[in-house]
From TrEMBL:
InterPro entries: CS_Sulfotransferase, P-loop_NTPase. This is Carbohydrate sulfotransferase 15. GO terms for biological process: hexose biosynthetic process. GO terms for molecular function: N-acetylgalactosamine 4-sulfate 6-O-sulfotransferase activity. Pfam families: Sulfotransfer_3.
């Protein structure tokens, strides 16, 4: 019996290791949970040091090996059994296939009612031009104009019922669903039933998206109780969404993180550069305390310390790309969206696999007034203090480096020096 157990263990271990090296040789990010705080091609340690990178810069290759092999983490990350147990209702009610009649992911339920999910998710990040991008994207005749942010995956599904935006629409869908809360999948499907499905019945080429920015950085439910003993979230919201809707397309627009923080500060009631300087110092002190006790991935998903965590892009993007792969995640820099919008719009249409428009038509769309701009607030508040910028650049620099390597694009360094 002991020999059989030993043989089984060696065989199982060999299969796992071979699978890992085959994955690595394909140039894909490792899928295992690495000691420290990382998922993906980068290794973060708990003292908030630089990621361990290849010395030759930004190449995706089999050189991305791991320092230690955490088998428990590997199994948690790659086995959906526990996800299916925790989110049984979702897995039981989500379709396993969609009707080929529609470009958008739609199906007929048992009562022959057409139900549809988003074709794409524009997930963030906040204060990075998401509203402007969304409003110009839905000008495409093939993309339906649905209310941008239902916030279902990240918030309503977990019991959040507030209505900071879309209040009339939320109340309308609650009435359709017949419940006071918004947590059910029925509520989410009714959201699109109310604003999109009728048109899809008439035109099968139409698609729609979900533009909720909280989807990008929110942890998956109650991970600390669902996975006791885990140092940081062993599974993520991208893992859950991919398990349910693996063919979805993910769009992200990112802004230089220091400027993003300042914009968010003013948007949320901050007055000027002096109030921002206080917020920066308080946030850095808060984050230092967290990092002294936890991994940076834990701190990024803890969502404390004011707005600073939302600029730790590499941690969130690693999870999204790990779940969906590079080919299903389209990342835009706000800089390019501002300076070369026609080219960026064309790239988006190609990524979404929808009809290409003429240059003149695209030009007429992207040259429309920028939505949700804070130019007046920024002018009144003045430039941030150089000392504030220096503190934040020092904090974000390692995460920018990690992001640049993950995306194989040095533009995401944002020239911090």
């Amino acid at each position: 019996m002991m020999q059989k157990n030993l043989l089984f263990g060696l065989t199982f271990g060999s299969v796992i290791i071979l699978a890992f090296f085959f994955h690595a040789l394909q140039g894909k990010p490792p899928l295992i949970h690495i000691k420290g705080a990382a998922i993906g091609p980068l290794v973060y340690n708990e003292s908030h040091q630089l990621p361990v990178n290849d010395s030759d810069g930004f190449k995706n290759s089999s050189a991305h090996m791991v320092e230690s092999f955490n088998m428990l983490g590997y199994l948690l990350m790659n086995d959906t059994t526990k996800l299916k147990k925790i989110y049984a209702e979702l897995f039981e009610t989500f379709p396993t296939s969609f009707s080929p009649r529609f470009k958008n992911p739609c199906w007929f339920n048992k009562r022959s009612k057409l139900r549809c999910l988003p074709y794409f998710y524009q997930i963030g990040m906040p204060k990075c031009g998401t509203t402007d991008l969304w409003n110009k994207l839905i000008k495409h005749p093939q993309i339906q104009n649905v209310p941008k942010e239902p916030h279902w995956w990240a918030k309503r599904r977990n019991g959040w019922t507030q209505t900071p935006i879309h209040a009339p629409q939320v109340l309308r869908v609650r009435h359709m669903t017949g419940k006071e809360d918004d947590a059910s999948l029925e509520w989410y499907l009714n959201w699109f039933e109310a604003f999109a499905v009728q048109d899809i019945k008439k035109n099968h080429k139409l698609v729609f998206g979900d533009g909720s920015v909280t989807t990008s950085f929110t942890p998956l439910g109650h991970w600390r109780t669902d996975f006791p003993g885990a140092k940081d979230p062993p599974v993520s919201l991208p893992d859950l969404m991919h398990s349910l809707q693996p063919e979805a397309k993910i769009i992200v627009i990112l802004r230089e993180p220091v400027s993003r923080f300042y914009s968010a500060h003013l948007y949320n009631g901050g007055r000027n550069s002096r109030s921002f300087d206080r917020a920066v110092k308080d946030s850095l002190e808060c984050m230092a305390t967290c990092l002294s006790r936890h991994t940076d991935r834990f701190c990024a998903y803890q969502q404390t310390c004011d707005q600073i965590f939302r600029g730790m892009y590499s941690i969130y993007m690693t999870d999204w790309i790990k779940a969906y792969g590079h080919d299903k995640v389209h990342v835009i820099r706000l800089d390019e969206w501002v300076t070369t919008p026609i080219e960026e719009y064309k790239k988006l249409l190609k990524f979404l696999e929808i009809d290409m428009l003429s240059n003149n038509t695209i030009k007429s769309i992207v040259e429309q007034k920028v939505q949700n701009s804070q130019k007046k607030k920024m002018k009144k508040a003045g430039e941030m203090l150089p000392s504030s910028r220096k503190l934040l650049e020092d904090f974000y620099r390692p995460y920018n480096r990690a992001l640049a390597e993950l995306l194989n694009d040095t533009n995401f360094l944002w020239d911090y020096g």
